[in-house]
Amino acid sequence: MDDLGPVAWPPAPIGTDRLVLRVPEARDRAAFIELLASPEVHTYLGGPRSRDELERELAEVPERWPGSFVVELDGSMIGQVLLRRATGHRRPAAAGKADLGYLFLPRAWGCGYAAEACAAALDWLADALPGEPVVLTTQSANAGSMRLAAKLGFTEVERFEAWGAEQWLGMRSPVAPTRH
Ligand SMILES: CC(C)(COP(=O)(O)OP(=O)(O)OC[C@H]1O[C@@H](n2cnc3c(N)ncnc32)[C@H](O)[C@@H]1OP(=O)(O)O)[C@@H](O)C(=O)NCCC(=O)NCCS
């Protein structure tokens, strides 16, 4: 994965009804470690990283690039939405396209926050890179992620085997509605 290319950050944090999407800050470090070390979050993502290793290796200010959003609720990070360029994607239908990823802390699941945040990030992308389709890869066994993908307007391109499991590749056309 690479960054999106020539796009700038939104000039200000993006506000939704309940959330704020913004650049990562040094104060998010503990939440990043919680997110990346969580076995529950990584059930369908190849397993978590070690908390000790993250404590040692994670930069003081988590990496920033346009499209890497921290999602904040009431002043604290609850998750991350990532829009990257799927340069090295193994499926030709996805290679080089804008790619959506999302990770939320388990305590924030089941409230519609991921859907709200992803819709806002996709709206930002639609303005920043008009006409671009967006792809998304998730394990088909990841029921929450599959429901979220459908809610956001992604439709199936194909299923394929990789990383020891069936993967679902979805695509969202540039005209699909995201606003609620
Ligand atoms: C995938 C993931 C982001 C989904 O989170 P989520 O909270 O289930 O997703 P949503 O924001 O769509 O919330 C959905 C639920 O909130 C409920 N909800 C409660 N209040 C709501 C509200 N005000 N508005 C909308 N939905 C609401 C919905 O009923 C819905 O439940 P359902 O999906 O069982 O019908 C989360 O499980 C996660 O972070 N997983 C680990 C990382 C991962 O696997 N990522 C995928 C790889 S890209």
TrEMBL record:
Keywords of this entry: Acyltransferase, Transferase
UniProt-listed Enzyme Commission number(s): 2.3.-.-
UniProt-listed SUPFAM superfamilies: Acyl-CoA N-acyltransferases (Nat)
InterPro entries tied to this protein: Acyl_CoA_acyltransferase, GNAT_dom, N-acetyltransferase
Any one Gene Ontology molecular-function term assigned to this protein's record: acyltransferase activity
One Pfam family per UniProt: Acetyltransf_3
Taxonomic superkingdom: Bacteria
PANTHER family: GNAT FAMILY, PUTATIVE (AFU_ORTHOLOGUE AFUA_3G00765)-RELATED-RELATED, N-ACETYLTRANSFERASE DOMAIN-CONTAINING PROTEIN
Protein name as annotated: GNAT family N-acetyltransferase
Organism of origin: Kitasatospora cinereorecta
